[in-house]
Protein 1
Amino acid sequence: MRTYVPSGDRAEELSKGNNWFVVDANGKVLGRLATRVARLLIGKDKPEFTPHLDCGDHVVVINAAKIVLTGRKLEQKVYRTHSGYPGGLKETGVKKRLAERPDEVVREAILGMLPKNKLRAHRAKKLRIYVDAKGLERHAAQKPQPLAV
């Protein structure tokens, strides 16, 4: 059995990612939402999936402020950043980060599930996250299809 490898015009057609999906994060568990969205960005669910091409779709996530964390993650989960200087470690709890920038919590969870390769930045550009449902108005022309997670 031979493996099909798209090239030329067919490869360009696959890498356009012309489908748009909207995902409502209201009451959804963060990790389960992130895995589903990451699969859409990668294009894993498509029959013509090719690992070296970006054949994923565009995804719009709305109501990021209403995401749910299970267990004791609200008290225990910590985000760490380091400036590179001695004593430059900063720690922020997920409860504080959800109150200030809930879209960043969702973005970091989704991008953390993408493969760490050269296509990652291009796939990340196909992700749009909005704190409430008002952001969906910007993408009315793309006619995004609602996706149940």
Protein 2
Amino acid sequence: MVLEQSGKLLRKRLRPWFASNQQVDRLVFKDVFRHAAKHGLIEAAACERWLQYRDNRNDTAHDYGEAFAATTLKLLPDFLADAKALADVIEAEADD
């Protein structure tokens, strides 16, 4: 749920860099994060991790084994830190 909501809320922060809200709304999840990095809302390394989190989430539809669980557990500490940092970016909108 955090992954999906992060993408949706980050779209709102990207709106100033697009000609219309519809352009932002048409972005796929990964492009939302790529644009966030491009415009300095998140660091490039964080963007790459978010893309990895998305790939991991998509893999849940195909893999339920121990290896998948181990991979997911390794991602969790960075995911929690990145989610908290992204929350600060999203909340900064209210300060603008």
